[in-house]
């Protein structure tokens, strides 16, 4: 539950986001899709309370099927462990050619000087640590969120973001086993920073409570990113990755996109083309005032499977029309 102070803070923060590049309608540095120009400001949405799903995103005017509703830049990204040296360490764009071009001394690839520059704030801190133990821990258990928390902690230490920048997002409710697991992850993370000789003053925010708070928000709000295949080679690489069940290039969290609620028959969806820069698109005609909803899961699953995943992963019983009719 938001307190009065955090609610005021959240409102100010949202205002800031709506006028900032995090919530962007500018495609010049994001995905460029000249055949489908993004409409000019302001974006046709507002965030408001829903009757049964907390806050949600509503259309402020009619939106045509296929329109880009808005573009979105991630606040935090992290490549999948199996793709660490195959995708841009900042925007998750796939490495085009084999070879050393754009690769830093640690073997990480940056697709452009822009991405290298934007990652300076966290990469300087991150490259001081030895993350092999944390990576191994995550790889063994199939975890991805601890890596995003590590990246966020480096961003905070590098001065790129405030330590409470995700507080506005809804957290997952956590059970006891999850909390115990998080305590271990926290110790591992803090220990790795200590070994990297990060000064205690730079880590004052990095408490166990901060770790749990951030991870609880990532659990509900982070997106798993699978890029469209741009070439025959990409297509084959994806097919190979699927054998290892890891087709995702990485994970990312966005602020405004995190306010979209779920429907098993959604009217909007999030699209990535070649990087973590995303677009929200309308799947059908949307009336002014209608709530925009995306599908969090594979919509082709049967109703029981969908209900189970939504309850266990996101903590709610879906009562969309498809679920009500048992479709
Ligand atoms: C990504 S957030 C969406 C924004 C959220 N409603 C908020 O106020 O920040 C996901 C959470 O929203 C709620 N939610 C999303 N879709 C829902 C639905 N169809 N029915 C009930 N709750 C839903 C659940 O609590 C879920 O964990």
From TrEMBL:
Under Pfam families, the record lists: SET
SET domain spans which residues? 43-297
Tell me the first and last residues of the signal peptide.
none
Q: Which Gene3D superfamilies match?
A: 1.10.220.160, 6.10.140.2220, SET domain
Q: Give the matching PROSITE patterns.
A: SET (PS50280)
Sorted alphabetically, which CDD domains does this protein's record hold?
SET_SMYD (cd20071)
Q: Record's InterPro entries?
A: H3K4_H4K5_MeTrfase, SET_dom, SET_dom_sf
Q: What is this protein called?
A: SET domain-containing protein
**What's in the GO CC field?**
nucleus
């Amino acid at each position: 539950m938001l307190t009065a102070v955090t609610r005021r803070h959240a409102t100010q923060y949202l205002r800031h986001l709506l006028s900032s590049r995090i919530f962007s309608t500018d495609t010049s540095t994001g995905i460029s899709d000249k055949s489908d120009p993004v409409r000019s400001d302001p974006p046709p949405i507002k965030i408001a309370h829903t009757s049964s799903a907390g806050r949600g995103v509503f259309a402020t005017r009619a939106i045509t099927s296929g329109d880009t509703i808005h573009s979105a830049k991630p606040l935090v990204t992290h490549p999948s462990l199996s793709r660490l040296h195959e995708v841009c360490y900042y925007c998750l764009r796939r490495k085009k050619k084999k070879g050393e071009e754009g690769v830093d001394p640690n073997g990480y690839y940056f697709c452009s000087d822009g991405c290298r520059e934007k990652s300076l704030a966290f990469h300087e801190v991150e490259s001081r640590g030895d993350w092999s133990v944390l990576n191994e821990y995550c790889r063994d258990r199939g975890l991805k969120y601890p890596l995003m928390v590590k990246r966020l902690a480096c961003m905070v230490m590098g001065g790129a973001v405030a330590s409470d920048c995700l507080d506005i997002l809804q957290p997952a409710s956590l059970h006891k086993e999850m909390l115990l697991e998080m305590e271990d992850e926290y110790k591992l993370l803090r220990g790795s920073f200590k070994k990297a000789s990060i000064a205690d003053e730079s880590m004052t925010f990095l408490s166990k409570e901060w770790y749990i708070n951030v991870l609880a928000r990532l659990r509900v709000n982070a997106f798993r990113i699978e890029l469209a295949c741009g070439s025959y080679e990409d297509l084959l690489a994806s097919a190979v990755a699927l054998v290892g069940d890891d087709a995702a290039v990485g994970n990312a969290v966005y602020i405004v996109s995190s306010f979209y609620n779920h429907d098993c028959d959604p009217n909007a969806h999030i699209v990535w083309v070649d990087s973590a820069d995303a677009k929200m698109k309308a799947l059908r005609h949307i009336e002014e005032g209608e709530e925009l909803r995306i599908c969090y899961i594979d919509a082709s699953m049967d109703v029981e499977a969908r209900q189970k995943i939504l309850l266990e992963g996101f903590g709610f019983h879906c009562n969309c029309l498809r679920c009500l009719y048992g479709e």
